[in-house]
Structures
1.
Amino acid sequence: MKIHNTLTQKKEEFKTSDPNHVKMYVCGPTVYDFLHIGNFRGAIVFNLFRNWLEANGKKVTYVYNYTDVDDKIIKRANDEGVAPSVISEKYIKEFEKDFQRLGLKKHDHNPKVTDYMDEIISFVKDLVDKEKAYVVDGEVFYAIGGFSEYGKLSKKKLDDLEAGQRVEVDSRKKNPHDFVLWKPSKEGEPSWKSPWGAGRPGWHIECSAMIQSIFNKETIDIHGGGIDLIFPHHENEIAQGEGRTGCQYCNYWMHNNFINMDGEKMSKSLGNVMKARDFMDKYHGEVLKYLFLSVHYRSMLSISNDRIQQVISALDRIYTAIELSADVIKNVSDSEDSDKSFNNTLKELDKKIEKSLNDDLNSAEFISFIFEGVRAFNALGFKNKKWNANHKANSEVFNNWIHKQGAMAALFQEEPREMINRLDEILIEEKNIDLKLVDELISKRVQAREAKNWEDSDKYRDELVSMGIELQDGVGKGWTIKK
């Protein structure tokens, strides 16, 4: 397996100190509000990565934290007149509802900053004792001048950084780029007792303390997060972690890219931020997961109405094939050996999927190979035939295959008919289709056909087509929504 390591900026063979155990940490959410869809890109991508490692026989210890001490949490708590813990606990629960709705596998640890305050204070004390940090007026700063490799992750050079470009440089710092490890709490802020007075931790120390506490100061294998965290957060994590132990903090760094909404970077200032819950209410969690995994995690993901329509169409085709296979399995009593050529096709696709996921978790190729499997199943051509034992055998092979592959990505596990109906409902809403008018036109077309009035029949058909309705004479309800 090869992954792109942000630290070296190249693909590297993935090797762990313990061949059978992977230690992985991914930066989780700051819990002060409902999370937007961008917050879930990492959660969905690294869920696939962990599942793929486990599918290959690795034990994975996956840590995904909650930042429950932060200025945004404090501000919201003060605005609402409640304790910060009320805000953080509320939005942890809301995040977990969204997480469960997506069907993602639970992490091994979900540490909260407030549960690791003793470990944070101990960490900061170690840095002060090693003269890697210094205290000024109850505030503790990390001295980056004592860490010669500062900038090795982000490739930033201190000489190129413009200190004080946006804020006034703190004159108490030995170096303008020194960062806060511990700071005195102001009135109305939560605080904890420490050797330097009552205060609270800086942002960067929190993840480092949780990592080194859970993994006993050992070098971890994988650290993940969004590319916006490379600098300064992850850069500072390395400085702190290696400053404390003198050992490599993390061997492989993986970062997922940003999201664009209709060609513009998603941001609050542009007003184009979409909360994950709103997205799932409007569409479905399956749409969000497929959307994210259909693009490589290091590529910019552009979301538009057209792209969402494409995803809905793709999911409809996949779930229609799953439903067909399930119906055949249910309604045919006898079974026999499946077609050798079909079995070989799926085995070849397994090899291609293995190769793609071993190549820096190429989920886009993974999704494309799922589609090849669906096409191969549809090409067997028994959709409108009387089913037999051979059809059942092939259906069983396909059904098992797609559920097994999909489970790694938390995809294709929904009840097929319910999912297909939901996709239809989405398109009805998106295209503003008047179902009452559809029924009226279909009724008029039936009457015209019975009267052999082909001109009117064609007229009603064309009107339905212009609404996005595809007619299927003699099949089921007689129409579908064009996808």
2.
Amino acid sequence: MLIIPAIDLMEGRCVRLKQGVQATRKIYADDPAAVAAQWEEEGATWIHVVDLDGAFGRTGANGRAITAILRRTGCAVELGGGIRTLEDIEAWLELGVARVILGTAAVLRPELAGEAVHRFGAGRIVAGVDARGERVAIRGWEEESAWQLADFVAAMEAAGVRRIIYTDIARDGEGSGPNLARLEAIARSTGMGIIASGGISRPEHLAALAGLALANIEGAILGTALYEKELILADLIRVYQGE
């Protein structure tokens, strides 16, 4: 199971939010590229980067920081937040992003996900499934869409997507553990790979996730718990990636 550290960006700085609420912002670093280098030193092979300004509709605030991350680290980078068009996807892939995460754009236009898979390949496109309860959220989680969670997952699979990131918004940044019941339900309903996000803060949370023993649960994204040093990335990578 991949252990993937997260770097969330606002105004070029590394921050964390609780449940996506902007007012809860806590700044952890002014140099996100240095944070990426630290994660790489501890053994990370992937880094999850989110342009929060982009997700909230503010474009251009984090381009320099993302480019610096790509130049500083040899880790594969998956990027989400404010990516709305095929042109956006192509630009980031050409800059060196390994795979792009489509959230709001895929919810509003599911056909975009299929077009992106066809043009760039299934390995380079991920659907972000961000849900509050059973309802999928959009635009930085500030709005709820008409999509039910299970229906959106099925729509992404039908579009040719082969990997999703599932975030339980109510648990994000709260440290209360992943939503194991929903993760298991999603995993059993689809052949897509699943990366779990939201609420993981203790070793037993990861042990429980791995304990589901479902092959398509591929990894877990960790954020606040790493920054607060509640979890040590290098230790987790040794346990779950055998490195």
3.
Amino acid sequence: MFFYSYMLRKIESYFEFTRLGTHWRTEILAGVTTFITMAYIVLVNPSILSAAGIPLNAATAATCLSAAFASIMMGVVARYPIALAPGMGLNAYFTYTVCLKMHVPWQTALGAVFISGIIFFILAATNVQKMILHAIPHELYAAVASGIGLFIAFIGFRNAGLVIGDTATLVGMGSLRNPSTALALAGLILMVALEIRRVKGAIVIGVIAVTVAAWLIPATRAPLYDQWAHSSSHGLELGSTFMQLDIKGALGKGLIDIIFVFFFVDLFDNLGTLMAVTKRAGLIADDNKIPRLNRILMTDAVASMAGAMTGTSTVTSYVESTAGVMAGGRSGVTAVVTGLLFLGAIATVPFVGMVPAAATAPALILVGSLMLSTIAEIRWRDPLVAVPAFLTLVLIPLTYSIANGLGFGVISWAILHVVTGKLAKKDWLLYLLAVLFLVRFLYLGSG
């Protein structure tokens, strides 16, 4: 009993419970709250990655393991209430652009994710990341975030059958008589209603409700049964993705721009989440700096490398961590609890095949719509800012590529500043990036 009390006090001291004014009950509740708001990724991420050819059960196990490892590491090493998991947007880019559009094998794409993690780690150990942060205008970052939101939502509409291909107009509207499409729209209404009422786990509840409804409708039950039977018969199946990444192939194919996109979006996703969580939790120092920043960034880098080794796309910090902070979470114990719950979620692997596209599609649409909030940060009345931001925002979904949208945004920003005489020496890195993107478009084709 004495040893138990001693160890408990040591743990509380390490996580600074007294200074932060927190205790075990609050931290555990906060961790559970964060997990509930993030749990949709256990169902949504595998459904996206499986389209790239990754076995569904293996993708589910990789999602749970990578989120568990990363969240626990963030809690223990960086001691922040920030949970991590495979990032929305980057998983869509990984599947629909890199694997399906560019015909890159998923093993090679995982190699690119791993390399981006190495670069992230090296830059996190130095001050180079600060140079990149200062080089990329904030408005372009906001445009990328919103563009990714449109990208995710577009995929959701397509998976729901609401948006379909059309030979005359490229895209058209699907039929609402399609049971799956009607279910997806009903699921979207349910999720939004729950979100408005601030129900924790709104997305998860919506996904489960639509899944149950799909199994009750004769027109959708048979295909679902076949899908689930095939999925559950393969068990955990992590071995089919564990350490299957092809690093040599990623380097050999010259996937420089892909690696850059993985790195860039991961970097700014983390910083945006970091600012949101630390501000909400009151963890920013008096000099407006974030304590242990390098530990946070290094943790994210290691998490992405570990995720690639298990078989999932880039792992990043989740802004849903603010839900745990609102529940009182202040220390790394919150993240540790969330990580342990993700570990327990591996038990859901045999049942993930029961979830239809109609259930995950509205989750993509809702998450995408929420990501559009950054549009307000763009100075739309200033053409010098508005045009590059608009090109970035629109070309991401229209070209099915974050790289293309970001490239046009950086190039147009640099050109407009040069022709208007607003060129500044301090922005040399931005102009270098613009030249690299231009060379890529001219000589390497589109992504």
4.
Amino acid sequence: MKKLSNNPMVALFLLFGFISCTKNSTNSGVSTTPANLKLYAVSAVDGSGIVSFTASADNTVSYVFNFGDGDTLTSLTGTTNYQYTFAGTNTYTAIVTAYNSTGKSISDTVQIGVYVKNGAGTLVWSDEFNTDGAPDSTKWGYDIGGGGWGNNELEYYTSSSSNVIVRGGNLVITAKKESFNGSAYTSARLLTQNKFSFLYGRLEVRAKLPSQHGTWPAIWMLGNSISSTGWPSCGEIDIMEQMGSLINTIYGTIHFPSANPSAGVGSNTIIANAATDYHVYSLDWSPSTIKISVDGQLYFSYANSSILPFNQKFFVLLNIAMGGNFGGTVDSNFTSDQMLVDYVRVYK
């Protein structure tokens, strides 16, 4: 999603500028169009991922930078430092648009190679799932029960080893067709609530997803304040959701009160072999942005701010739901399906 300035006064200024331009578009003498725009970018060589951008133009009052990774920023001076986070050497096409006082604009682009020595940061928490048996009770708890979970879901979540177990280097979550306590299916939902939570950083989960119609796997987070403020005031970050009827479509979404809470704000992307190969689903989260990626490819970015609930500690959840508002109709031949999680890692 394209973002304007985090500064509301700048955004308002630009808005009135665009309105003025529209009303006076027939009068070529209203203002002078920006000219002689030049964009320069210098990438740090220390692996930090920091790039110094400088833009200059005549007849200009503000600059909007698009950094080529889904993030944008408005600057009045035309200079800014930006830090890319994806590890390795990547090439980005950055665009700057220069605006005059009435909203007239010109743009310039530059390609910049960026080297990030360690895009993740320092590992502060992880589960590699290397010990067979029940999940580590110091790291994971369980949501237990049925009743739809607010989404008309069909499963009853248990802590049974038939629904969740660590085996062969993976956390294995299994959704099954079986009648249990009034539900037609069983599954498992693990969470780190009251065991681990974090504020800002990078979350990576390497996983292989289920494939059958009606399954609804999720890798997601909730704010610690859910116990006191409830949902959606606590905020929700969905790093990965998938429906079995579209097995290679991956959804990233955030939910908060000022948006349509049920629908949220997000995007989706298509990958190959989501159910047969492992992929890395990741979140990069800071006071300024929320970025959701698959295999290092950013597909959803949103501007964080102090008015949103994404400035508190969040905990992690892993689960497979069945049916419901998102999962849809369950295949009549469904018997069971699994999500395999190779690791969960949190970096700061």
